[in-house]
Amino acid sequence: MNILAIESSCDETSAAVITEKSGNPVLLSNIVSSQIDIHKEFGGVVPEVAARAHIENIIPVISECLTKAKVNIADIDYFSVTSGPGLIGSLVVGVETTKAIAAVYNKPIIPLNHLEGHFYANFLSDVKPKFPIVALLVSGGHSMLIYMSDHLEYKIIGTTKDDAAGEAFDKVSKVLGLGYPGGPAISVAAVQGDENAYKFPVIDLTPSPERGEDMFLKYPELSLDFSFSGLKTAVINQVKKIGENKLTEKNKNDIAASFQKAVIDTLVQNSLRAVEKYKPKTFILSGGVAANKSLRESLTIALKGKTTFIIPEFNLCTDNAGMMGAAAFYHIKKGDKGNNNFVADPNLKL
Ligand code: KG4
Ligand code: ZN
Predict the structure, then answer these.
(1) Mean pLDDT across the stretch 122-135?
(2) Does residue 84 line the site of ligand 1, with CB under 6 A?
(3) Cβ of 170 less than 6 Å from ligand 1
(4) What is the pTM of this model?
């Protein structure tokens, strides 16, 4: 089984070839053309610019991925593409290109939810996750805890009430003048900073009878939801207190380290609660923020002895078509025959 997967939901144009070996998905190639350099000067992704860059890149990226995989396009059995969620202008380029190619070669398309790809990046690891699984998804658009009883069965058990974790990294990076994308910039600054220099809030959304919330709930269940906007405001207030123009290199590094610690402590707190409650065989980490070294280390320590912990390779954490191909593989294994008559949906739900 050869699958050609295409991903263009945000600012990476990517194509990958996946094949089957001993019943498992194997990556033959995974080409990612990043637009970071283009969007850097604007301090974030500009949707119109992203769509145009996808149009320019998509065919060269597909050609390169086939060449690298040494697979002829006529030998592709299934095409697969992210149909949502994401930026509409970006999604449409991937979706319509895939439809056109699949029509020429008369092959089925497996349309996919982008989030499924993030989870399935973990199924490209040597050690395969075992069900039931609890997944922590932390990306630029989402912060979620998901319970998976089996392949393609997703139950949202925790979600953010405001900003996503990656979004918080991006906004704080902007406030500190560290540039875009914020996650990698903050983590580099944090290495040189003191994480105990500032005390930023670790938000717990569990209702508190002492605060008068849920008066009838004497023993409220521990919350698995997230909120990062208060943390972002705390950082902004700290920056104002010092004075934006007076921030030294040391201030920036210390704030970055203290902020990163607060995000990680929040993610670890809720992950431990989810493991306690759902007792999964495997805990998986996914999404762009999963590339954060401190988060990977903190979760490894926190989950030791509690469950098996699997993390994707660094290059499979941020957006790429390889992870989408892995999700398509399991769709096909479960009997998905494809659908060539669908449209891009920027608000697609899991
Ligand atoms: O999964 P992704 O590539 O795109 C979305 O689906 O949103 O995630 C991008 C997000 C950005 O917010 C970026 O700042 C964050 O992942 N990110 C990181 C790191 N690398 C990327 N956050 C923290 N630490 C990192 N090393
Ligand atoms: Zn993503």
Answers:
(1) 97
(2) no
(3) yes
(4) 0.96
